[in-house]
Design brief:
eight-stranded mixed sheet, 614 residues, alpha+beta, single chain
């Protein structure tokens, strides 16, 4: 019995669409790139519900005739190439003829288009690859695509779309990539009636600043080198613009965005010892090469590109960036850590110097303990009834174990076992010792408890912030002068989506449009923290995690704030502060580990100490 058969066109189209159309952002990318190929000078992108309900792209390009408009939805129908050799002389963004049939296979599509030579345009309606209508219509020159209810006929694909926040962020990211390489085209992006980005025609540098903020202007150095193999132009950041994560790094070749880890390594090598290897420097670099010397037909997304002379161009790139750095004397001055540094006066030889006076307290008794005044540690939370951890025999923590103690905390396990024997039998010291401003050492019955000071404070603050988001009282510290935070549209979308959570945390922020926010107040306890740096860190944290779950967003917010607000290494504490610190730690839900799974507490067993001196 024969079992091999041809799939229906509708099924084959849905399968093929999965390679090209992965999410709403893929639709935006393909339609906007088609508009660029059509010679558009103005492109408008409108989305609703992060593209789930509607994606509309309107351009003023050359448009299509009624025959071309219908043919455009046939698989492998294209005006970009005619023979295989044309793949090596591409001057357009698209060439496969797969985008429009893939979109039409998984959505309701409405197309209106007209050429300059025609008085009447064409309207086409397609549902799931099936043409339902084609008729004349009145419309301006250009093309208007409306894609509704993406993946309506592929429920599994629609189900696995991420949150609106994530999908919209991906749309904005694709929009920015195309806008960065086409400064001669004006763009606009609107979501649910709100304009997220409006970019007028500009030069290349202005386009970069319009997207990522004018503060970037003073951080960029111009790159422009021409060789027989390639021309490389654009901008690279100064060393002082480097950051740990989230730097804006873009490569483009012949008007097309690309990912290229090998070339990224060339930029990193160019900075050498100027910038630490774990830091990222922003760059916007545009390659112009002979189309016959690159292959863009590697992946359906066309972002992975193979160069024929890859190693030579690597050398050119590294040398050009090094030359720019050298010409600009872009070597940062050494700035040593000045925190806690004594104020040394300028030597003045003519000034009289009084001899030091030695004061002796004859009544001082080194064996008499005086209760500490107890300065309150920075970022202290409300007072918590004291529980003395020195009374309890804490278990050895395993930093490699995936099993974390229960939310009730470790202390409850020891109350029942230790207090059952009676306090009279416990001969424990209640004193604490601080080691190198990093660890708190406390004698316990089984040995010596060691607490990582900074991580302990992170756990304390994290629990505090999560409690605030769960409805506990929160106080906001108003800023004397509001600070402005400028974010790229893709980052601003993330902040707008979590505004309610930010308010619960104690932030007082107001969106001013164009990716700018006015920070009028910060949560009490974050005094001295830069709002700009904190917001960038929050955005980076949200991008790193899988979004879509409200609890996950709150976790990332609380974790980011706790990291930025925890005491720094070297923070000196007196005994009263350390005692209060330990009490607050063991009132937390999980005092053994930080929210991101790092060890806080461990025990150096008494028998291990005895072995050392055996």
């Amino acid at each position: 019995m024969d079992i091999i058969h041809l799939l229906p066109d509708s099924v084959a189209n849905q399968i093929a669409a999965g390679e090209v159309i992965q999410r709403p952002a893929s639709v935006v990318k393909e339609l906007v790139e088609n508009a660029i190929d059509a010679g558009a000078s103005s492109i408008e992108v409108v989305v609703q519900d992060a593209g789930r309900t509607l994606i509309q792209v309107v351009d003023d390009g050359k448009g299509m005739s009624d025959t071309d408009a219908r043919m455009a939805f046939e698989r492998h129908a294209t005006s970009k190439i005619q023979k295989a050799e044309d793949l090596f002389s591409l001057h357009t963004m698209g060439f496969r003829g797969e985008a429009l049939p893939s979109i039409a296979a998984v959505a309701h599509v409405e197309l209106r288009t007209r050429t300059l030579q025609e008085d009447v345009g064409t309207e086409i309606l397609i549902d799931g690859s099936q043409l339902t209508s084609q008729s004349p219509c009145s419309c301006p020159v250009g093309t208007n695509f409306m894609v509704r209810d993406i993946f309506y006929n592929v429920p599994a694909r629609r189900k696995f779309l991420k949150s609106n926040q994530t999908e919209l962020s991906n749309i904005v990211q694709e929009f920015e990539r195309i806008a960065l390489v086409n400064p001669s085209v004006s763009f606009s992006l609107t979501h649910n009636g709100n304009t997220l980005s409006k970019l007028p025609v500009a030069n290349l540098r202005t386009r970069v600043l319009n997207i990522f903020g004018k503060k970037l202007d003073g951080q960029l150095l111009d790159v422009d080198v021409s060789t027989t193999m390639a021309r490389i132009r654009g901008f690279v950041g100064k060393p002082e613009s480097a950051r740990k994560k989230g730097a804006h790094q873009y490569f483009f070749v012949n008007g097309r965005y690309m990912r290229h880890a090998y070339f990224a390594k060339a930029v990193s090598e160019a900075f050498g010892q100027i910038v630490s290897s774990d830091m990222q420097v922003p760059y916007f670099l545009y390659f112009e090469v002979d189309p016959s010397e690159i292959d863009v037909n590697i992946h359906p997304t066309k972002t992975e590109i193979k160069f024929e002379n890859e190693q030579a161009i690597w050398q050119i790139l590294m040398a050009s960036v090094r030359e720019v750095l050298g010409q600009a004397n872009a070597v940062p001055m050494l700035e040593f850590d000045t925190e806690g540094r004594p104020d040394i006066p300028i030597f003045q030889p003519r000034a009289s110097v009084a001899p030091p006076v030695l004061e002796v307290n004859a009544n001082f008794n080194p064996f008499q303990r005086t209760p500490s005044a107890g300065r309150h540690a920075s970022h202290a939370v409300s007072d918590i009834p004291a529980c003395d951890p020195t009374l309890y025999d804490l278990p050895q923590c395993d930093p490699l174990s995936d099993e974390l103690p229960s939310e009730e905390g470790v202390m409850s396990d020891f109350l029942s076992s230790d207090l059952a024997s009676g306090d009279d039998e416990l001969e424990m010291s209640t004193s604490h010792i601080q080691l190198q401003g990093q660890y708190i050492l406390t004698p316990v019955r089984s040995g010596l408890m060691i607490v990582h000071q900074q991580r302990a404070h992170m756990r304390i603050l994290y629990d505090q912030y999560r409690g605030q988001m769960d409805g506990q009282p929160v106080s906001t510290q108003g800023l004397l002068f509001p600070e402005l935070v400028q974010l790229p549209p893709s980052d601003a979308v993330l902040i707008e989506e979590i505004t309610d959570e930010l308010h619960l945390l104690g932030f007082d922020i107001s969106p001013l449009g164009g990716g700018t926010f006015s920070v009028n107040g910060m949560p009490a306890g974050l005094e001295g923290t830069s709002p700009v740096a904190l917001f960038h860190e929050i955005v980076r944290g949200l991008k790193e995690e899988v979004a879509g779950i409200e609890d996950e967003v709150r976790h990332r917010l609380a974790l980011t704030m706790a990291r930025n607000s925890a005491v720094v290494r070297g923070q000196v504490m007196d005994e009263g502060e350390m005692d209060d610190f330990i009490n607050r730690l063991f009132a937390c839900s999980n005092p053994n580990y930080t929210p991101d799974g790092r060890l806080i507490v461990t025990i150096l067993k008494q028998e291990d100490v005895d072995k050392i001196f055996a």
